Amino acid sequence: MDLRDKILKRQNKNDNEIFEKAKVSILGCGGLGSNIAMILARAGIGEIFLYDFDKVEYSNLNRQNYKISDIGKEKVLATKKIIAETIPYTKIHAKNMYLDEKNMDKIVENTDYFIEAFDNKESKVMAFDYFSKKENKFLFTASGMAGLGDFSDIKVKKINNITMVGDFKSDAKKDGLYLAYVSIMASLEALECLKKIRKDYYGR
């Protein structure tokens, strides 16, 4: 039994085979993206593309998957290293770049599944608009993940090829950001992505 089989022993074997062949892009490596990357790697996703232009700061550590020793490092490289230390067989592509409507075409062919994990409204809107025109690509996005909200407020909405999770009302500037709530959204985005990958494999 190799290392991958040992780590994924408690998962469904068919899922393990499906996820090993899958490729996912994560747009942003902050509170959502850094945690989603680890969730997907632990689930057995074979190849992950990371995109971010930012560096790790102290204020990130309350909710993002980084350590004190990562301060000042590029987020994509720090995330790649953290995953490699835990799940070494996952192939990680770390792309230190700012994404906008001018360069999205350069990355869209790498995968069919995209996790939107931006930390600003403008980039979120850009991603939504871009992927709404790409019916054969699938976007998983989050809106409303601030404060210490009520779990019953969290919704999953689907519009064609786009899946949205969140409470769709909380505000980061007013309510603050806490891992306890952000991690729920991260898990939901990852869960919806994994379900879609499996559904597409079986064609239903």
UniProtKB/TrEMBL annotation:
Signal sequence extent: none
Keywords of the record: Nucleotidyltransferase, Transferase
Pfam family, one: ThiF
Every THIF-type NAD/FAD binding fold domain range: 15-198
InterPro entries to which the protein is assigned, alphabetical: ThiF/MoeB/HesA, ThiF_fam2, ThiF_NAD_FAD-bd, Ubiquitin-activating_enz
Keyword Acetylation: no
Protein name, as recorded: Sulfur carrier protein ThiS adenylyltransferase ThiF
Species, as recorded: Anaerococcus vaginalis
Phylogenetic lineage: Bacteria, Bacillati, Bacillota, Tissierellia, Tissierellales
